[in-house]
Amino acid sequence: RATARLLDRAAAELRVESRAFTSRNLYHAARHLTAVEPAPLGREAFLAGPLAARLRAGPVAGLLPPPVRAPEERLPAEWDAYFPAAILLVDRPEIVDLFVASGVLVQGRIAVVAIDGTPTNVVAWLCRGLRVGHRAPVGYLHDADTVLYPFRYEPLATWIEVAVEERELPYRDLGFEPRGLASGGATSLRLRELEELPPWRLVAQATRELLALVPPDPLLAPLTKTRRRTGRRRAAD
Prior knowledge:
- This protein is α/β, with parallel strands linked by helices.
- The protein is built from nine helices and six strands; from the N terminus they run αααβααβαβαβββαα.
- The protein has a four-stranded parallel beta sheet with strand order 2-1-3-4, sandwiched between helices. Strands 5-6 form a two-stranded antiparallel ribbon.
- β5 (181-182) and β6 form a beta hairpin.
- α1 crosses α2 (23-34).
- The longest helix is centred in the N-terminal third of the chain and has 14 residues, at 2-15.
- It starts with a helix and ends with a helix.
């Protein structure tokens, strides 16, 4: 019961600023509440033990279910008329679901795919767009322990690798360095997993850095004296 209360408390704190979170987010949040380092249970033991026991008693509000990748249908043909403003590669399907739940995909026109090739319908859509000449900046978000450079392993490899080499696509590594990310707190801990960050912070930080690569739309730029004069001349003509 004490463990269940701890998990519910950790989940409640995550929900203050994030509508959804992963099981790893919950693990790290619970570990933080216990103020024990290292954690009394490893992550996998936590998922198979205390968390599984808590879920048998009922759902945890905000907790995303494990990714289930059923066969995915082709996206509607209308999608091919559009292309995202930016593409984000992540190293686990759970991170895709975290971004989907945040709502930034629609607001920021970002496509998020995992390097295991999921969601397959989104990957196929991006490949079709790249094939016909669409381009968008690419970011790669990963844990400190992820050492594989994704372009040679995931389904967008050929298109993105060629485009980056030809400088057609801006690219930025948004992941943690091999030594981890400084926690920024009073301690000198270094974060190694993306989900050690609060979900809202991870999503906001990655989105902000990725969208910074998107060229500004000149039609949305503030009016200047030159543009005003040009507009008046066109109106007079």
